[in-house]
Each structure stands twice: as structure tokens, then as C-alpha cells.
Design goal:
This protein has 6 helices and 14 strands. It folds into 2 domains: about 140 residues, Immunoglobulin-like, CATH 2.60.40.3250; about 160 residues, Collagenase (Catalytic Domain), CATH 3.40.390.10. The strands form 3 sheets. The chain has a 6-stranded mixed beta sheet with strand order 9-11-10-12-14-13, with helices on both faces. Helix 4 packs across helix 6. The protein starts with a helix and ends in a 14-residue tail after the last helix. The protein is α/β, with parallel strands linked by helices.
Length: about 325
């Protein structure tokens, strides 16, 4: 019941709007920000990697200055001139999960992270903060974005990945846009991918609150091609060349399937309206992973595919019991 209420609240924040006028501060475009989270258990840093602009905005247009959920990180955008908060969002990250592992006590690593914000009409100040599991500030970065900066990379106007809509109920301003991507499907296997994406779509809308709010969603299947069939399974010595370089055994947990190549995910989606991401892995191995406001990754050919894809989407969409590393099992 609690999970149902949390998911319903997320949906209502998108669907029901009031207060701040979107067009007062933002254009109908997306500001994509790529960061690198670096460090170890003792010290962390956030580095700005790249700024991009996408042709349209598929995120929420209401409750803009309200934090949707409490993740393990947050982003605050302020109008540079007035200092007014005009947009906030929260997230969790694979980097923050990794910080809780023994490896993080001995090694320094860097993780890609990408976030989508509405494109500002005027210069803004953006602060990104990483929090500990106890909600203490680990580190933060503040930087300025000027919308007329000529070095903001324009993406999504050409070379758009082939895709088709499985469910289309309205424009991006009225619906929640979910993209389902192919991982480990060769070009010759895309018909299989589209079939698997249909199953994922059917599974999602067989559960509440998605079932009752099906008419508030758009679902698009994106045929991101891989050179090899399947995904990497390190414990079996199998390494594949795939669209997003996903692999099992994340943090040495056999069933934990993730990718650190987050920029490649968003590059594959450039030019396609999206807010939430589901990645289907072309394998019979059991496993998956879901990270709040990042992505869901699950295997498409295991008998448990249907319930697992819904379970993992609950993590990425609604932040339900964000996954952290445990010695015995991360599939919470």
C-alpha cells in the first residue's frame, strides 16, 4: 500500500499543476547536463563534463520548485538575477551505492551521470549536492549556465535512433514519456526487441497505479543496436560489445545488472521525447537494477521478466527502496 501511494504521488505531481508558470522561466527545450562523480569513501567531488540542448522538454511543467522525492542527491536551479529557485529535482546514483562498498575504501573511481532540466530563458545558477545515506552533505558543485553559450552542444536534430510508439496518449505537456531501449540486440534482432518492449509495456500497465493512469503515459521503443547479442556476464568470462556496455556482477553481486556508460544512453535518446528510461537486456540471465531518476535495466528473456521489469521501474520512477549494496543480495 505504501509503495502504491508513493507512485501515485509521483504521478499526481506530473499530472496536476498549479502556481509557477513554466513559460515565465523556460523554453520548450531540455538542458542536458553531464557530470562526473569522482572519489572514494573518504572524499568525493562533482565535475561538470558537458552541457547540451535537446529540441523539446518532456519533464514536469508544474510544481517546478518543489522537490518531487527525497533521493540521495538533489539539483537546484536558481534565476541568476533574482536568486529565486525556479526548478528542483532529486536523484540517486550508482556512484553513491558504490561508496558503501569495501572497494571504495581503497580505490578512487569516476562515474558518469546525466540529468535533464528545463532549458532556461535567462542565466541560471545550478547547485548539485550529493548526500550520504543519513542525508548529510557529502559534496556539492555550483556553476552558472548561460542559455546563449555557443558551446552548449546541440543534440537531437539529426541521426535520431529508429523508434516507434507502443502507446501514445498526448503531447509531452500532458503525459509522462517513458523510453524503452534495446541493449544487446543486433540490427537483425530488432523485431524481437519490439516484441519484448510490448511485453514490458503490458506488464507495467497490469499493476496499479499505472493501470488506472495508463492514459497519462506515452511509451516509445527505441531500437538502439549492438554489435553483439546478449550482455556481459563477468562470472562466466563473457564480455560483449553492446550499445550501453551493461554487465552483471556490479559490485561483485552476480544478479546486479547495471551500466556506467550513462552518456551513451542519453545519446541514443537524443531527439526523442523522454523523461524515464527502461533498458531491456537481450539475455536469459536473471537480474536487473533500478536507480531513482536514472534508469531501469532488466533482462528480457528470463521467466521472471514481467514482474522484475515492474519491480525495477518502481526504483527508477518512484524511488521505492533505492537499491544499495548488500553482501548477500542487492535485488531488494
Amino acid at each position: 500500500m505504501k509503495k502504491y501511494l508513493v507512485l501515485a504521488l509521483c504521478l499526481l505531481m506530473v499530472i496536476i499543476g498549479h502556481a509557477q508558470n513554466y513559460t515565465e522561466y523556460f523554453a520548450d527545450k531540455t538542458l542536458r547536463i553531464d557530470y562526473i562523480f569522482t572519489g572514494n569513501a573518504a572524499r568525493q567531488n562533482v565535475c561538470l563534463d558537458e552541457l547540451s540542448v535537446l529540441p523539446s522538454w518532456a519533464g514536469r511543467r508544474h510544481h517546478l520548485a518543489e522537490l518531487p522525492l527525497q533521493g540521495n542527491g538533489q539539483i537546484i536551479m536558481k534565476d541568476l538575477e533574482s536568486g529565486k529557485t525556479i526548478y528542483t529535482t532529486s536523484f540517486s546514483s550508482l556512484f553513491q551505492e558504490w561508496l558503501e562498498t569495501d572497494e571504495a575504501k581503497a580505490v578512487t573511481k569516476g562515474f558518469e551521470n546525466t540529468f535533464l532540466l528545463p532549458y532556461p530563458l535567462h542565466p541560471v545558477e545550478i547547485e548539485i549536492t550529493l548526500l550520504s545515506p543519513r542525508k548529510e552533505v557529502r559534496t556539492h558543485l555550483t556553476h552558472t549556465v548561460r542559455p546563449d553559450d555557443i558551446l552548449i552542444h546541440q543534440k537531437g536534430t539529426a541521426h535520431i535512433t529508429p523508434h516507434k510508439y507502443l502507446l501514445k496518449n498526448g503531447g509531452t505537456d500532458k503525459c509522462i514519456d517513458v523510453a524503452i531501449l534495446a541493449e544487446g540486440y543486433t540490427p537483425a534482432e530488432m523485431n524481437v526487441f519490439y516484441q519484448n518492449a510490448e511485453i514490458a509495456c503490458e506488464s507495467l500497465f497490469s499493476h496499479e497505479p499505472f493501470k488506472s493512469m495508463k492514459d497519462r503515459f506515452n511509451i516509445v521503443a527505441v531500437a538502439s543496436p549492438s554489435d553483439d547479442t546478449g550482455v556481459s556476464v563477468p562470472r562466466l568470462g563473457e564480455w560483449k560489445h553492446t550499445a550501453f556496455s551493461s554487465h552483471f556482477s556490479t559490485f561483485y553481486s552476480d544478479r546486479y545488472l547495471t551500466t556506467r556508460r550513462v552518456k551513451s544512453i542519453h545519446d541514443a535518446l537524443a531527439g526523442i521525447p523522454y523523461e524515464h528510461i527502461i533498458i531491456l537486456a537481450n539475455t536469459e540471465e536473471y537480474g536487473g537494477g533500478g536507480i531513482y531518476n536514472a534508469y531501469t535495466l532488466t533482462t528480457a528473456h528470463h521467466p521472471m521478466f514481467r514482474p522484475v521489469v515492474v519491480h525495477e521501474f518502481g526504483h527508477s520512477f518512484g524511488g521505492l527502496a533505492d537499491e544499495y549494496f548488500y553482501d548477500d543480495d542487492v535485488m531488494t
